[in-house]
Design brief:
The complex is a heterodimer of chains A (about 120) and B (about 100).
Chain A (H helix, E strand, L loop, with lengths): L3 E6 L8 H14 L3 E6 L22 H5 L8 E5 H6 L12 E3 L1 H10 L2 E4 L1
Chain B lengths: L2 E5 L5 H11 L5 E4 L7 H9 L9 E5 H6 L11 E4 L1 H10 L2 E4 L1
Helix pairs in contact in B: 1-2
The chains are: A alpha/beta (about 120), B alpha/beta (about 100).
Chain lengths: ~120, ~100
């Protein structure tokens, strides 16, 4: 039976394999017809910054991964507006379209989910 | 005595201001390394708001790391000096000691 799965990404871009593993999990969940809500929070919002050129420091690019989410039916991508404001990032700095939510909206989203996963 | 402060973890301008007041002197320099580079848009904003206090030292970041993280257009380059690895070494040699945070 399909479930609503909230996947929270709360670590910065190059902080280990956290981001890649979270996206992998999101893709697997979507492949099994679960509804995935991908939520970027705290330092996780750094993953969304556009104009990234991670190849020049020998890291794999995650731009294609993020841009390809909709091909895997992951349409619900959210970012915590407080995390963005604290870090001085506006919506114009983001790589993909996301829905901005405040703390209470995020809380509600998590209450509605069957599973909330933070790797 | 001049100190080079190497910031390794992301911070925000409130945390940075607190750090400046407590530990940094006027002659010191601050270099944002790795993911700490993500803090620079916020730190630039902090300086605009005049929250930096008495700190008059210079703020540096490695250009390669800034570009990799897509931050070039978000920085005020009058407030943050971008350097390469050779200049990083020169900076280490110019200062009397370094502290990694």
């Amino acid at each position: 039976m399909p479930q609503i799965i909230n996947l929270i990404i709360n670590q910065s871009t190059f902080a280990g394999s956290h981001f890649k593993e979270s996206i992998d999990l999101a893709l697997v969940c979507a492949a099994f017809d679960h509804q995935v809500n991908l939520i970027f929070q705290h330092d996780g919002v750094y993953n969304l910054v556009n104009s990234q050129q991670s190849m020049i420091i020998g890291e794999k690019s995650q731009v294609d991964l993020l841009k390809g989410l909709s091909f895997y039916d992951i349409e619900n991508v959210y970012a915590d507006i407080d995390s963005m404001q604290t870090r001085s990032f506006g919506i114009e700095s983001l790589l993909i379209d996301v829905k901005l939510l405040n703390a209470s909206e995020l809380n509600r989203l998590n209450q509605q989910a069957d599973q909330v996963v933070v790797l | 005595m001049s100190v080079l402060h190497l910031i390794q973890q992301p911070t925000n301008h409130a945390e940075f201001d607190a750090q400046l007041e407590l530990y940094f002197s006027d002659n010191d320099s601050v270099l944002f390394l790795n993911d700490a580079a993500f803090s620079l848009p916020s730190v630039c904003k902090s300086q605009e708001l005049g929250k930096v206090g008495p700190f008059r030292g210079e703020i540096f970041a490695l250009k390669e790391q800034v570009v990799a993280r897509g931050l070039m257009s978000l920085l005020d380059l009058e407030k943050v000096k971008l350097i390469d690895y050779h200049q990083f070494i020169a900076l280490c040699l110019q200062t009397q000691k370094s502290i990694t945070w």
